[in-house]
Design goal:
single chain, alpha+beta, FAD/NAD(P)-binding domain, Polyamine Oxidase, Chain A, domain 2, protoporphyrinogen ix oxidase, domain 3, 3 domains, 7-stranded mixed beta sheet, 17 helices, oxygen-dependent protoporphyrinogen oxidase activity
């Protein structure tokens, strides 16, 4: 059996790695268009700094990534983030995220009443959700995140809390992003209990009675609904209080450290790209890896896939595609059955990482960073204080800020040069965090059209594409960020599930 995998990001590499081990008699060829493997994962060593130019961690409770790391022999290099208070910057003021909230939904009275972020009018409006009926979903049971939470909690809660917490994860327009494809458990809770506040309180109490760890488990089953506020986190941007993790008798445990609980995100001491390097180095001998390989003109006839790679015609019995949506514009051109993935919107962002000497830094560092409301007049969306979130990445006498640039409708990421983006990021974060110190160095990474947008209708559109492939393209498999999650563990999970499917089907 000859298998071709297109796409050498972590998802494609994981599929090749496990399939090569499971099927040593299969001939597997992986092509990557870029000059390096790993996709958005990119780690640089700058003197004594470990610098992540792409994602800086993964969600630990999604264990597929940790299992891969263990299989590669890297479990002893795993660390977890430090946890602490998360903040929101809104038009000139920095506020703590209210404690006792679950992704912005209040579940405890006093922390919400005392919150400085939300006005009294906004608090009263959010409380009225207790009397709301479920939102009228569309024919596919879907709704945008923005419309759903504005209906339940009001415009102010949407603008100041929900949107900064949730929109940053997907980098898009919260009034277009599908709740069903991103946080379906909110819909389940609402449908079960009638409204969000009542449902989240009930879900929280249920888990407390069951003895489930709130920090590790989140709020609702296995959904992407982690608790926000002091001691826990919302996305891979804010947490404080490190505790290293180790694998004991096959289970991950957090070492006690000095004080509070371990964070919910995981990193490796050598950076995330150490996983990519380990996969490449340990790839089975029946797998061939090729970079700088442009695959074009994919077609299927007579039970064989034909394609062009760097001007050379090739064939394969099985084809696995693990690439961004834009690549589908060059494949199956006349087949509208792929439009559901081909026409997906993608957002762009940039990351500016800047290092300062501690002795010369004149600002106040709160928690491990802050989120920035979309209505604040700045193209910045968030800032992480890396030396407090991931202290192992930074020398003790340094401060490192990781600044995120790019909002829907703002094109500075695509229009500005690296020098202009660096200057913009520094000027804006100096203004927001109120300091004047200049960095020793700045690194910019521009991620153009890097984030597939799971807009309303995404799940139905992807289901239609898969049904079309199943009917017309035997032995074609589509995996990666356009389909079942944009997180690192989501890609690893898709790859492992595919290998399990292929291994099972080839033995029956």
């Amino acid at each position: 059996m000859k298998v071709t995998i297109v796409g050498g990001g972590l998802t494609g590499l994981t599929a090749a790695y496990y399939l090569g081990h499971a099927k040593p008699d299969w001939q597997i060829q992986l092509y990557e268009q870029a000059p390096r493997f790993g996709g958005k994962i990119q780690t640089q060593q700058v003197d004594d700094f470990v610098v992540e130019l792409g994602p800086d961690s993964y969600l630990g409770r999604k264990t597929e990534m940790t299992d891969l790391i263990t299989d590669l022999g890297l479990a002893d290099t795993l660390v977890s983030n430090e946890t602490g208070q998360a903040y929101v910057y809104d038009r000139g003021n920095i506020h703590p995220i209210p404690g006792g909230s679950i992704m912005g939904v209040p579940t405890e009275m006093m922390p919400f009443v005392k919150a400085t972020l939300i006005s009294w009018a906004g608090k009263v409006r959010a409380g009225l959700d207790y009397f709301k009926k479920p939102y009228p979903l569309d024919a596919h049971g879907d709704v945008s995140i923005g419309h759903f939470f504005r209906y339940h909690l009001g415009q102010e809660m949407m603008d100041k809390l929900i949107e900064p917490l949730l929109a940053g994860i997907y980098g898009g327009d919260i009034y277009k992003i599908s709740l069903l494809s991103t946080f379906p458990h909110f819909i389940q809770v609402e449908q079960k209990y009638g409204n969000m506040v009542k449902g989240m309180i009930a879900a929280k109490m249920s888990h407390q009675k069951a003895g489930v760890s709130k920090a590790a488990k989140g709020a609702v089953n296995e959904g992407d609904v982690p608790r926000a506020g002091k001691g826990t986190m919302t996305d891979a941007q804010f947490d404080k209080k490190q505790s290293s993790i180790q694998r004991t008798n096959g289970n991950l445990k957090a070492s006690k450290g000095t004080a509070s609980q371990s964070g919910m995100f995981r990193q490796l001491t050598g950076g995330l790209e150490s996983v990519v390097s380990a996969i490449v180095e340990q790839m089975p001998s029946n797998v061939t890896l090729t970079t700088k390989a442009l695959v074009r003109d994919i077609s299927y006839a007579d039970a064989v896939y034909r394609y062009n790679v760097n001007g050379r015609e090739e064939t394969s019995h099985m084809l696995v595609i693990s690439t961004p949506p834009a690549t589908y514009k060059d494949w199956f051109i006349r087949d509208t059955g792929f439009d559901g993935v081909r026409n997906m919107e993608q957002s762009s962002c940039a990351i500016a990482i800047m290092a300062f000497d501690k002795t010369s830094f004149d600002g106040e560092l709160k928690g491990s960073g802050l989120l920035i409301t979309r209505k604040t007049d700045t193209p910045l969306t968030a800032c992480t204080i890396l030396n407090q979130k991931w202290p192992q990445t930074t020398p003790d006498d340094k401060i490192v800020l990781r600044v995120f640039i790019g909002k829907p409708g703002n094109d500075v990421v695509e229009r500005y040069s690296d020098e202009e983006l660096s200057a913009l990021a520094l000027k804006e974060i100096q203004r927001i965090m109120n300091f004047k110190a200049n960095p020793e160095w700045i690194k910019i990474n521009r991620l153009i059209h890097c984030m597939p947008q799971y807009n309303v209708g995404h799940r139905a559109a992807i289901a239609a594409v898969r049904e079309h492939v199943k009917e017309h393209y035997p032995n074609l498999y589509l995996i990666g960020t356009p389909f079942d999650g944009i997180g690192i563990p989501d890609g690893v999970k898709q790859a492992k599930e595919l290998v399990h499917l292929l291994t099972k089907s080839s033995t029956t």
